Amino acid sequence: MRKEEYYLMSSVEESMWWYQTLHQIVANATMRYADPNSMTLLDAGCGTGGMLKFFRYRYPSASLYGLELMPEACEIARLKSGAEVQSGSIEHIAYSDSFFDVVVSLDVLGYDLDRDLAISEFHRVLKPGGTLLLNLAAYQWLHSYHDKAVGQTSRFTLSAVNRMLERHGFRKVYGSYWNFLLFPLMVLRRKLFPAGSASDVKPFHPVLDYLFRKTGFLETLILDKGIAVPFGGSVFLVMRKK
Question: Among 194, 219, 188, which residue's Cα sits nearest to residue 22?
């Protein structure tokens, strides 16, 4: 990811509707499928720490760790979340085998890296029966100016991600698309009304942000009931280490 995109992320991830929705989905899944009150959690590719800060607020007794490639982003994440954050790649996670109860990785495997190696590392550092929470951008045909701006090369289908993870010793607990209510608008924006070289990580008009936030809240309720939605802008999976 370009350095300027990290700073954009840091400036909006605690207020922008998309981040707020994603953070709520992940936190709800953690409560549903793990034990957040005693967990040791790694955010693998934590960016500037917005998710870690959300976890710190939601589950203050959890032991939180982060891993991020860009040193400047690591420092922001440390200050923002109070978590132990290391600079490094998810292809080589510098923790011992079976160290974590939960590994979270949000929109990281879509970048230019060795996905098989990264997933193997997720599996290695998780305890037996540990939980992997994974979010990825959906549908390669939707690759657009936004992906190019943030450096993302690949988008995925739910079935493809599930097969990829199962090859490395994970079994699916839950999987769904999300951002489905706004998906038609997303397609129109990305394919018919592109925004040049800028990404969509930016402050939205307050009215739009409010409406989109309410839509996202409805989606979190649907996913929290364990309902799987057949399409959307993102793929979300909960996997268990065998």
Answer: 219
Q: Is 56's pLDDT higher than 80?
A: yes
Q: Tell me: pLDDT of 34 over 90.
A: yes
Give pLDDT tens digits for 188-225.
999 887 777 678 888 889 999 999 999 999 999 999 99
pLDDT confidence band for 239 (50 / 70 / 90): very high
Distance of CA 120 to the CA centre of its chain: 18
The edge-to-edge listing of strands for the beta sheet with 40-44 is 84-87, 63-68, 40-44, 100-106, 126-137, 234-241, 170-178
Q: What is the pTM of this model?
A: 0.94
What sign for the dihedral angle of Cα 145, 6, 107, 22?
Answer: negative
CB 209 within 8 A of CB 17: yes
Give CA–CA dist 53/64, Å, rounded: 9
Domain 3-241 has CATH 3.40.50.150: yes
